[in-house]
Amino acid sequence: MFDTIKKLVNAFGPSGCEKQVAEVITQMIKDKVDEIYTDAMGNLIAVKKGSGKKIMLAAHMDEIGLIVSYIDEKGFLRFGTVGGVSPLIALGQRVVFENGTTGVVWYEENLENMKDAKPDKMYIDIAAKSRDEAMKMVNVGDMAVFAGEPVEQNGRVISKALDDRVGCAILAELAMKRPETDNEIYYVFTTQEEVGLRGARTAAFGIMPDLALAIDVTRTGDTPSCTHRPVVLGEGPAVKVKDSSVIAHPRIRDRLVDCAKENGIPYQLEVLERGGTDAGSIHITAGGIPTGAVSIPSRFIHCPAEMIDLNDAENTVRLLEAFVKAR
Amino acid sequence: MTEQGVYKDPTSGEYPEYLIDMLKELTMADGVSGDEKPVRDFIIDQIRDRVDSWHVDNMGNLIAFKKGTGLNRKVMLAAHMDEVGLLITGINENGLLKFKAVGGIETRALVGKRVRIGKERVPGVIGCKPIHLQDAAERKSPVKKSGLTIDIGAKDREQAEQSVAVGDTAVFAYDPVEFGEHKFMAKALDDRVGCVLLMELLKNRYPFDLYGCFTVQEEIGLKGAKAASFAVSPDTAIVLEGTTCYDLTGTSEHMMSTRLGDGPALTVMDRSVISDRGLYKFITQTAEEQGIPWQVKRTISGGTDAGRIQVSGTGVRVCTIAVPCRYIHTPVSVMDKRDFFHALKLAEATLAGLNNWLRETYQNQSGGESNV
């Protein structure tokens, strides 16, 4: 599992630029599925054919990032954010562009209050001495993501982009297992989730599944003096009850719980006050699609170092396998 | 004045004047969101003879169609007909009209402005307390929209009701003016510039099927485009817009969304959309090859119909070409005529070469078929 995660988090893939991630996944699973293709939004869709129910499993490929909006005459890059990037968390971080160009994020130091450290008062320094030099390295419109190698420690993983490459890894692992079932399974690796659940919407419309699950990370409530949340790292996949984008279809939620109980898989129930997943756009597609979600407990989401527990990831694969086999 | 449809490099200042005349007429038509009929009727008159068919859908979108000469791909061009404006919500005892803004209008931009209301174009003015009578606190605090009313010169409610009704819409009443160095000011440049560009582009026939969509209710949430794109179900769409421009003294370079005179602006990302990378690249390459000036919109702000079109159906490849307009969403906005003509040149050149791009792009995209 860690090897799969490692390959995926190392791929470059901010919203709208998910090609590299799609290629990594394609290489992993293309021999294990009956069909694999991309659509106009860049969603990667892999199908295991079957005569039963059409089940869509969605995990998003994109990660949060920064987008260059202007290059000044000294070669500093001004940027906007792609998805929910906290300026304070970005401060002092190393970021990397698709072509490998590395930069550091800093702020206009005459700011009186760090609360004013918004992206328009910040910049990326790519060690260029002039605009000309900078423009040989990057263009306006190019995106950058947080840099950093994934680390495994005590069965837990620390890395950028676990949101939602861990979901992608879980779907890839499941696809490689080729679960024995009559159901037709669509492994959908979606795009542009972080900017508004966009890719999942067109993918779901194209597939028109009978039911769907989104696989994404969720926040935990188990760190010092944090907001109260029911989910704990390492205590199993979280079956979503609701977040701000969706109320999970009760029958899908119950089926997931039953699958977990029947197979002795640890699970938790998730109620997330703020935040959404692809389930939010899938369930209101066309005439409506019964949709639920399984979440991987994760700490420090949208930081350069997010954390998940490998047991949770592996148990999610088991839970999904049981779910897609169920009649 | 040059011959219609043929013109030299707009940078020289030579451009087809009839297009500016068209823009003048179209900005004089009134079309607040949900009330776009006058604009739509004007456009229908202009384009009916240059398209194969057209229809108006249930939301009021005007959808014009031109059959392609070969390639089996659908391309949608979209420009929205609606403008920001006001909605009359009540009539006071004293004959003054209460109103709400339709679309994003800053309250400070309303005070003292002339408006016209409804089909009969009843003239009015948004009044406020004279400065002489304001106390120190009032002078310092911003105006509240709830304190503003429209004066149509009626002596009481009964008289006012003879010319206006609750539910009527009002637009800013300012005539277009050509002025200064290639400059043009008018109300509703957002997005009548796009409408004129689209009307012009409908003169040509292309290898692909072309759907010219003049959309409604963009300013209140990109609503018309959602229905239009669902019906058309295009492969690719280009949105023609008027976009923000803030290039005035005191703004840092990186906060200038666009600069007037630097050419049409392309959007990489705004709050509604991340443009298709391939289409964006194709358009910028086209601009470079043709020597057409262009710029990237520098701020991640605002949204366009592209946001709705992109996620329609099974997904659409989209990009936006926009004419920079200073002071949009106020009674008068300003554009550089050269940007307008360069936008037309760029759109024409893009459509001329789009055939090849479509072939290459959709060859690589299996679109539902296996590529294992």
UniProtKB/TrEMBL annotation, chain A:
Zn(2+) 2 binds at residues 163, 194, 302. InterPro entries: Peptidase_M42 (IPR008007), Peptidase_M42_aminopept (IPR051464), Peptidase_M42_dom2 (IPR023367). This is Endoglucanase. Binds 2 divalent metal cations per subunit. It holds the Pfam family Peptidase_M42. GO terms for molecular function: aminopeptidase activity; metal ion binding. Belongs to the peptidase M42 family. GO terms for biological process: proteolysis. Zn(2+) 1 binds at residues 60, 163, 216. Its cofactor is a divalent metal cation. It comes from Thermoclostridium caenicola. The active site is at 193 (proton acceptor). Keywords: Aminopeptidase, Hydrolase, Metal-binding, Protease.
UniProtKB/TrEMBL annotation, chain B:
The active site is at 218 (proton acceptor). InterPro entries: Peptidase_M42, Peptidase_M42_aminopept, Peptidase_M42_dom2. Keywords: Aminopeptidase, Hydrolase, Metal-binding, Protease. One of its GO terms (molecular function) is aminopeptidase activity. PANTHER family: AMINOPEPTIDASE, ENDOGLUCANASE. Its cofactor is a divalent metal cation. The keyword Cell division does not apply. Transmembrane segments: none annotated. Binds 2 divalent metal cations per subunit. One of its GO terms (biological process) is proteolysis. SUPFAM superfamilies: Aminopeptidase/glucanase lid domain, Zn-dependent exopeptidases. This is Endoglucanase. It comes from the Bacteria. It holds the Pfam family Peptidase_M42. The keyword Coiled coil does not apply. Belongs to the peptidase M42 family. It comes from Thermoclostridium caenicola. Zn(2+) 2 binds at residues 190, 219, 329.
